Amino acid sequence: NLLWSRTVRENIAFPLEIAGKPKAEINKRVDELIKLVGLEGRGGSYPSQLSGGQKQRVGIARALANNPKVLLCDEATSALDPKTTESILDLLVEINQKLGLTIVLITHEMHVIRKICHRVAVMENGKVVEQGEVLGVFRNPSQEITKDFVKQVTEPEETADTIKHLVEEFPESKIIRLTFVGGNAEQPVITQLIRKFDISVNILQGKVSQTQSGPYGSLFIQLSGVQDSVDQAVAFLHEHQVEVEVIENA
């Protein structure tokens, strides 16, 4: 919460003043921080003259003023529009890389975790129920609450309805969810599948997301054909380190 009677410069300087820093040191540090968060030319502005994203940048600069070891961001993007959210997340990544600063980010938005975090901990009823590297948790979520969160970035909302419709229309086929992690997400596995086996492949829904540790992809396909060919195709996918989950099997 910014001090509305203070300018951008004065807001950022406030914790330095409390710490008793000399004026020359304060001015130098404020200049550095204004440049770091991309607010050049707005030092004399008051909070009422700033956009939501600019206010958030002032808050981040103020939090960094005394060179903390950890930056705590509690729902840092929850009140921002999508474009502004992306710019704030890019800024946090830049701060993490430039300053080597640990950032603890609290959020309910999994795309935020996907974009900037290296590790994630999921809390339920005040307790940590699951934690680990972001790619690992996205790949194998063990808790129901984590599975629901991960679906935010791996599955379009209409996936369940599409699968239900296709299972009813083509009961003899298999609906399969494929999970690609890291370099595997960028391989033409489906093309190889169609060329190698006498099967039909219908792509239902798919999404590849980029995380700080590499790409993560989730793809729903419908396999049709002779049972032996379908089984061989599934085995082929396993051999290429693609996780395979049969969603519906007549």
Write a short abstract of this structure.
45% of the residues lie in helices and 25% in strands.
Mean pLDDT score: 85
Morphology: elongated
Order of helices and strands: HHHEHEHEEHHHEHEEHE
Q: For the terminal residues, how far apart are their CA atoms?
A: 57 Å
The level of helicity is 40-55%
The strands making up the biggest β-sheet line up spatially as: 6-7-5-8
Low-confidence stretches: none
Note the main sheet. Answer: 4 strands, antiparallel
Number of helices: 10
Assigned CATH architecture of the largest domain:
3-Layer(aba) Sandwich
Q: Could you name the CATH homologous superfamily of the largest domain?
A: P-loop containing nucleotide triphosphate hydrolases
Provide the domain count: 2
Topology:
Elements: H1 8-18, H2 23-36, H3 52-64, E1 70-74, H4 82-99, E2 102-106, H5 110-116, E3 119-124, E4 127-133, H6 134-139, H7 144-154, H8 159-169, E5 174-181, H9 189-196, E6 199-211, E7 214-225, H10 227-239, E8 243-249
Helix pairs in contact: 1-2, 1-3, 2-3, 3-4
Folded structure, characterized:
This protein folds into two domains: 8-107, P-loop containing nucleotide triphosphate hydrolases (Rossmann fold, 3-Layer(aba) Sandwich); 159-249, Alpha-Beta Plaits, CATH 3.30.70. It is elongated. The chain has 250 residues and is α+β, with helices and mostly antiparallel strands. Helix 2 (23-36) crosses helix 3. It has helices at 8-18, 23-36, 52-64, 82-99, 110-116, 134-139, 144-154, 159-169, 189-196, 227-239; strands at residues 70-74, 102-106, 119-124, 127-133, 174-181, 199-211, 214-225, 243-249.
